[in-house]
């Protein structure tokens, strides 16, 4: 070991302390004149600038066994080292003076990126094992979400694309590949290398870009396929690179090695033809090594084939990504729909995995809290359906297998009772992400079982049909309400399929969404009956109430502002109505139709002027023990496969709500509708008592809710029962218990401070 120079020991500006030594080992055949003896290894002492040699027989033996790629790397490193040694940095004077040049440069820039090449060449580089590609890909559980990562790169404004084509075709017999091609700016060699490296991203907090972490392409492509071929072209250069786990595993690599070739593009002799001239690597041997990897581990077996694949970019510039050697077992079906790419469901004993069967399960379904197992969501298994809603406001035109994608704007479909709330900005979030949350609510024109919110972040769909508040409970409240949330202030996870729920910003947004849902359902919309999700039935002769938008907090008063005087007037008018009733009610709603004189009767013997069934049904469904009766029995989910063999007349509150929407329980000159309503409700309890044994939780719940029903029914009709709905009461079957409402206070009040004669009919505590 050579002694360290005295000047280096005394140099106050020396980057490293005297007892440290940073070294670079290089190959001897390219060594400098200071160490020209063959078969030996040179080292450089950074602090002293001295060179020395040491015997290295083992190093020579290992050097001969290195791959061609490793030898080329070390040869280039030695050339750089020779150039730096020929012009060493001036040493600092022993008595002070100018500091060391390297130290001064680091002090001035304060960043590693500004460090001179001598410093960067002697430091160790962190390697990424090929297993990192597989580990990184595990963040994508859903295959369509992984494919969306490739679409995001084309959608971002740095790409400059106007059209993106997604296709699937056979690149060789039995080998199907997925391709994503855009007509953007393309990439030069440095940008392509950054794209294939980890963590390089210039998109963070850029308006319109959802990318941030610099791992989207690697995680998405390696989740879907073992190999990814990237072809990109600009106006004057073209490059091809291969990210292949097949190649890395074959050579047992301990680092991620990427073969990459670059050509110069020159105009051809004929129109539309281009001439490609090899540019990088400039060494013939290295060029052949890189091309040899492409020929061996891809479906392109010659340089002409590579250039032909490059010419499939039919614009001046653009990028083409080919994913081949797709994962096994297969996840996609390319034959069921020639214009779509669908996911394959796990095969059962009696289906083909492509269509729905008697089990009522969809082809594929993502798990969402509160969602039925049998609900069919095409966006979960159809790439075309997913791409139609992937971007709230697409900036490019997408095609899938030759057919254009027609975007379905989630906001535009909320055509019934559409309402947009005032922007909300959560406090306490980083300034870089400070932006407002926009909430849109409404209903579909057609009947749908879907509910929840589509949540977008920077124009990109993150969550589909996310349910909040009452939509997660076992009732039918808000079960057909849909909405869209634009939340650029939230932080998406790496796979862009969820949000960071530990952030305070997410908790604040969730609370605001739930508050907006209640404001919309109980104050804004005029379509659904609060509590039953049913359509409001306009009473004959009653003017439709209008929705007044712009009220504080997104609420709107029906028929004008709810002033205290208006409430008092309503109660006064209702009390006066209780003193008289119709003797000849022709329309079933308490009107005689011709203005006949009314006969005063006592309040308990009155005939209800307002249909009590929606209120009764709402109270039953909101009961704490009614969770088992609010929807149809899912025999497969609960493990009661013989339920529909024993119960021949299934009934539930949700079905009754549907019948109520259709007007099946209305009374027009007869009591058929009311009797049918009472019979259906009682059938729910009879089914529970028939299938379950006494003492079972569902059996006891039926008794408890049944007592509430009979109590409310008697309170609504009193002693006068014109339709005979009180006959056939099931109160005896309900067992011992107080004959009163579960929310009553025992003093004749319904729990909201209203007397029995004036129930809270609209659920707002105002007594209707």
Description of the structure:
The protein has 21 helices and 20 strands. With 768 residues, the chain is α+β, with helices and mostly antiparallel strands. Strand 16 (452-457) and strand 17 (460-466) form a beta hairpin. Helix 7 (143-155) packs across helix 9.
**Strand order, biggest sheet?**
8-7-6-5-9-4-3-12-13
The helix content, as a percent range, equals 25-40%
Unreliable residue runs: 1-63, 88-114, 346-350, 353-358, 531-608, 738-768
Number of helices: 21
Q: Give the integer mean of the pLDDT values.
A: 74
Rg value: 37 Å
What's the layout of helices and strands?
Layout: H1 6-10, E1 40-44, E2 51-55, H2 57-65, H3 68-86, H4 101-109, H5 117-122, H6 131-137, H7 143-155, E3 163-172, E4 175-182, H8 189-195, H9 216-224, E5 225-233, E6 237-244, H10 245-250, E7 260-267, E8 274-280, H11 284-297, H12 303-310, E9 318-326, E10 332-333, E11 342-343, H13 383-389, E12 397-400, E13 403-404, E14 416-420, E15 437-443, E16 452-457, E17 460-466, E18 482-487, H14 504-524, E19 528-529, E20 534-535, H15 564-577, H16 613-621, H17 635-638, H18 643-646, H19 653-661, H20 672-691, H21 697-717
Parallel strand pairs: 3-12, 16-18
Antiparallel strand pairs: 1-2, 3-4, 4-9, 5-6, 5-9, 6-7, 7-8, 10-11, 12-13, 14-15, 15-18, 16-17, 19-20
């Amino acid at each position: 070991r050579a002694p360290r120079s005295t000047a280096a020991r005394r140099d106050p500006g020396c980057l490293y302390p005297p007892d440290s030594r940073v070294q670079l080992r290089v190959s001897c055949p390219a060594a400098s004149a200071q160490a020209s003896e063959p078969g030996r290894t040179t080292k450089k002492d950074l602090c002293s600038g001295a060179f020395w040699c040491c015997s290295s027989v083992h190093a020579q033996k290992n050097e001969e066994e290195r791959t061609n790629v490793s030898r080329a790397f070390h040869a280039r490193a030695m050339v750089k080292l020779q150039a730096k040694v020929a012009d060493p940095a001036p040493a600092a004077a022993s008595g002070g003076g100018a500091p060391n040049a390297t130290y001064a440069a680091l002090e001035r820039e304060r960043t590693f990126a500004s460090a001179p090449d001598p410093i960067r060449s002697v430091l160790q580089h962190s390697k990424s094992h090929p297993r990192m590609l597989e580990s990184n890909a595990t963040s994508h559980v859903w295959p369509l979400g992984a494919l969306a990562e490739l679409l995001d790169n084309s959608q971002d404004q740095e790409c400059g694309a106007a059209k993106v084509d997604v296709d699937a075709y056979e690149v060789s017999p039995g080998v199907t590949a997925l391709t994503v091609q855009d007509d953007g700016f393309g990439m030069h060699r440095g940008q392509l290398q950054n794209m294939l490296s980890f963590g390089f991203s210039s998109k963070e907090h850029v308006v319109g870009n959802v990318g941030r972490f610099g791992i989207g392409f690697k995680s998405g492509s390696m989740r879907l396929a073992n190999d990814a071929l990237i072809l990109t072209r600009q106006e004057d250069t073209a490059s091809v690179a291969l990210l292949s786990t097949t190649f890395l595993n074959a050579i047992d690599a301990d680092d991620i090695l990427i073969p990459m070739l670059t050509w110069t593009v020159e105009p051809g002799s004929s129109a539309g033809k281009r001439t490609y001239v090899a540019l990088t690597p400039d060494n013939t041997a290295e060029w052949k090594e890189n091309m040899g990897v492409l020929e061996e581990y891809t479906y392109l077996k010659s340089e002409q084939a590579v250039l032909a694949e490059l010419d499939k970019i039919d614009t001046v510039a653009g990028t083409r990504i080919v994913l081949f050697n797709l994962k096994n077992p297969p996840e996609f079906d390319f034959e069921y729909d020639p214009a779509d790419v669908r996911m394959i469901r796990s095969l059962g004993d009696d289906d083909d995995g492509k269509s729905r069967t008697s089990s009522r399960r969809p082809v594929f379904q993502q798990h969402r809290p509160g969602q039925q197992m049998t609900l069919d969501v095409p966006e979960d298994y159809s790439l075309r359906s997913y791409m139609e809603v992937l971007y709230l406001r697409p900036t490019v035109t997408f095609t899938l297998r030759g057919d254009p994608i027609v975007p379905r704007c989630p906001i535009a479909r909320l055509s019934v009772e559409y309402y947009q709330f005032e922007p909300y900005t959560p406090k306490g979030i980083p300034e870089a992400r400070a932006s407002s949350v926009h909430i849109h609510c409404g209903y579909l024109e057609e009947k749908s079982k879907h509910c929840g919110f589509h949540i977008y972040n920077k124009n990109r769909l993150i969550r589909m049909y996310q349910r909040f508040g009452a939509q997660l409970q076992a009732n039918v409240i808000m079960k057909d309400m849909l909405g869209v949330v634009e939340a650029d202030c939230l932080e998406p996870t790496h796979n862009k399929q969820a949000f960071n729920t530990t952030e305070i910003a997410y908790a604040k947004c969730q609370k605001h969404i739930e508050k907006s849902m209640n404001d919309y359902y109980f104050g804004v919309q005029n379509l659904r009956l609060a509590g039953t999700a049913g359509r409001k039935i306009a009473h004959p002769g009653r003017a439709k109430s209008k929705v007044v938008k712009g009220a504080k907090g997104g609420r709107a008063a029906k028929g004008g502002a709810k002033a205290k005087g208006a409430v008092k007037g309503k109660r006064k008018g209702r009390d006066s109505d209780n003193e008289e009733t119709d003797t000849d009610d022709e329309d079933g709603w308490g009107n005689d139709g011709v203005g006949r004189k009314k006969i005063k009767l006592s309040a308990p013997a009155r005939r209800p002027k307002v249909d009590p069934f929606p209120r009764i049904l709402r109270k039953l469904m909101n009961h704490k023990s009614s969770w088992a009766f609010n929807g149809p029995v899912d025999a497969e989910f609960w493990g009661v496969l013989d339920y529909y063999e024993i119960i021949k007349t299934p009934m539930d509150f949700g079905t009754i709500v549907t019948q109520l929407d259709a007007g099946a329980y209305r009374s027009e000159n007869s009591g058929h509708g009311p009797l049918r309503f009472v019979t259906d409700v009682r059938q729910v309890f009879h089914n529970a008592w028939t299938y379950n044994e006494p003492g079972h939780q569902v059996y006891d719940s039926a008794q408890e809710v049944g007592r509430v029903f009979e109590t409310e029914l008697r309170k609504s009709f009193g002693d006068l029962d014109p339709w005979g709905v009180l006959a056939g009461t099931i109160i005896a079957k309900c067992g011992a218990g107080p004959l009163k409402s579960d929310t009553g206070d025992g003093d004749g009040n319904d729990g909201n401070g209203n007397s029995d004669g004036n129930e809270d009919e609209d659920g707002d505590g105002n007594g209707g």
